[in-house]
Write a structure and sequence with these properties.
It is a single chain. By secondary structure, the chain is an alpha/beta fold. The chain has an 8-stranded mixed beta sheet. A two-stranded antiparallel sheet has the order 2-8. It has a domain of 118 residues: Dihydrofolate Reductase, subunit A (3-Layer(aba) Sandwich), CATH 3.40.430. The chain is 22% helix and 32% strand. The longest helix has 10 residues. It holds the Pfam family RibD_C. It comes from Hyalangium rubrum.
Amino acid sequence: MKKLKYHVASTLDGFIATEQHTAEAFMQDRLVKDSEHVADYLASFASYDTVLMGRRTYEVGLKLGVTDPYPALETYVFSHSMKESPNPRVKLITEDSVGVVRRLKEQQGKDLYLCGGGEFAATLLTAGLVDEVLVKLNPLLLGSGIPLATRLKEVKNLELLSTKVYKNGVVLLRYSVLG
């Protein structure tokens, strides 16, 4: 069975994007230029064969003209409002996200990468489908924005599996989701 890993960048105060669903703060030169954590993130793609994301996360790239943000991975976008996919490679799922993800986990192959966002992650966490949470904790404070997971129905306990501290202040935290 495949694992579903929520691999996400976050600020120290727990936000994955601004209230306007932008992530420019994470793109500062001091955080990404010649950064080992970016190289590690890109290398992690070798462990995935599928990426899952909510509509708002997908639309960040779409606004820049990127219709297939992960061409090496099978891509699923989950949305109740999009009517059709702008790219034939990107599969649009409009109903039963939990059932679709459950079926994807049962397939053979590499792990599933949950790219975001906070509402979609909360749905999958609540359904007990997320196996690991990998947080790239950035030395930033936004004060408000899109939380890592919104409106969880219950507390989700995590077990720390590993940490890695990078020279630029980013800390990679890897957790297993318990129960």
